[in-house]
């Protein structure tokens, strides 16, 4: 294992891989996507979806209970995007979307578009922050992680196709629409993804319990990725062994461990890039 105690600006540069076309991505299909489409519901998630550069809605569906001013705003945005914008009774809206929450506002997408590993890695800036997730199966946790990633300018989230929650309508809602903007890379093998990112100059750190460098004194490399595991099982051994080190969140004596999405928010804030200027 490489030394995790390297100071800010002291990290030896990693050389990006040359001529390595190993394919670690897989186009994931959730249960919703197998049915042919996915409904994103809620005013803010739908607004974010309609503003996304990567996710494409194919129609907007509004309940007749949506206030006129709000309905007019969605109709205008749908027209700008050349999308159908339909209004129906609330009962019909619930039947078609399968939702009772969401304020009667929904947009349908054919499927969630995951980022391709090679294309995504190649386009990353010189200074980058990424989360890798191992065994995160709860939609609320995944949504919360995406929301923090969006809020603190992370460059993406990598997750495995197996034993992991895909991006669903529940994830969209929990992320407050961040899932429409943060690149999510779904891979077949998390260990190979770790190795590929190391080849691209990343230093990877496991966030596990009481192990590792205190986050308050941690100095991230220009390209830093944090691996988060499930609250029940943590990070799998093979993935943990490939990391360059570990970080931990200092807590009061006797305090229990944090929910993984809460921990992600604290870590994202602590190692964030400058938010007011572009970084190369």
Termini distance? 28 Å
User: Given the structure, what is the number of helices?
Assistant: 10
Overall radius of gyration? 20 Å
Strand order of the largest sheet: 7-6-5-10-8-11-9
Portion of residues in helices?
25-40%
Rounded mean pLDDT score: 86
Query: What is the CATH domain class of the largest domain?
Result: Alpha Beta
Task: Please indicate the count of domains.
Answer: 2
What fraction strand? 15-25%
Along the chain, the helix and strand elements come as: HEHEHEHEHEHEHEHEEEHEH
**CATH-derived topology of the largest domain:** Alpha/beta knot
Structural class: alpha/beta
What does the main sheet amount to? Answer: 7 strands, parallel
Instruction: Describe the global form.
Output: elongated
CATH superfamily of the largest domain: SPOUT methyltransferase, trefoil knot domain
Describe the protein.
This protein has 280 residues and is α/β, with parallel strands linked by helices. The chain has two domains: 37-109, Ribosomal protein L30/S12 (60s Ribosomal Protein L30, Chain: A), CATH 3.30.1330.30; 117-270, 3-Layer(aba) Sandwich (Alpha/beta knot), CATH 3.40.1280. Helices cover 31% and strands 19% of the residues. It has ten helices and eleven strands. A seven-stranded parallel sheet has the order 7-6-5-10-8-11-9, with helices on both faces. It has a four-stranded mixed sheet with strand order 1-4-2-3, with helices on both faces. The longest helix has 13 residues, at 68-80. The protein is elongated.
């Amino acid at each position: 294992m490489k030394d995790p105690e390297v100071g800010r600006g002291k990290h030896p540069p990693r050389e990006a891989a040359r001529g390595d076309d190993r394919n670690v991505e897989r186009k994931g299909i959730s249960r919703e996507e197998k049915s042919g489409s996915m409904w994103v519901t809620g005013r803010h998630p739908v607004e974010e979806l309609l503003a996304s550069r990567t996710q494409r809605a194919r129609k907007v569906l509004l309940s007749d209970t949506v206030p006129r001013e709000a309905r007019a705003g969605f109709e205008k945005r749908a027209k700008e995007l050349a999308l159908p914008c339909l209004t129906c009774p609330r009962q019909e809206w619930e039947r078609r979307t399968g939702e009772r929450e969401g304020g009667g506002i929904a947009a349908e997408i054919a499927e969630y578009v995951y980022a391709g590993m090679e294309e995504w890695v190649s386009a990353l800036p010189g200074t980058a922050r990424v989360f890798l997730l191992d065994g995160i199966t709860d939609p609320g946790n995944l949504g919360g992680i995406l929301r923090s990633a969006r809020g603190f300018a992370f460059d993406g989230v990598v997750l495995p196709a197996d034993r992991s929650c895909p991006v669903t309508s529940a994830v969209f809602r929990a992320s407050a629409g961040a899932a429409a903007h943060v690149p999510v890379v779904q891979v077949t093998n998390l260990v190979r993804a770790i190795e590929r990112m190391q080849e691209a100059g990343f230093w990877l750190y496991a966030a596990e319990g009481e192990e590792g460098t205190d986050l308050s004194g941690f100095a991230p490399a220009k390209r830093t990725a944090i691996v988060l595991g499930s609250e029940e099982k943590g990070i799998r051994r093979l993935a943990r062994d490939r990391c360059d080190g570990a970080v931990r969140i200092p807590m009061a004596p006797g305090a229990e461990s944090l929910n993984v999405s809460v921990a992600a928010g604290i870590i994202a804030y602590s190692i964030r890039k400058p938010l007011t200027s572009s970084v190369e």
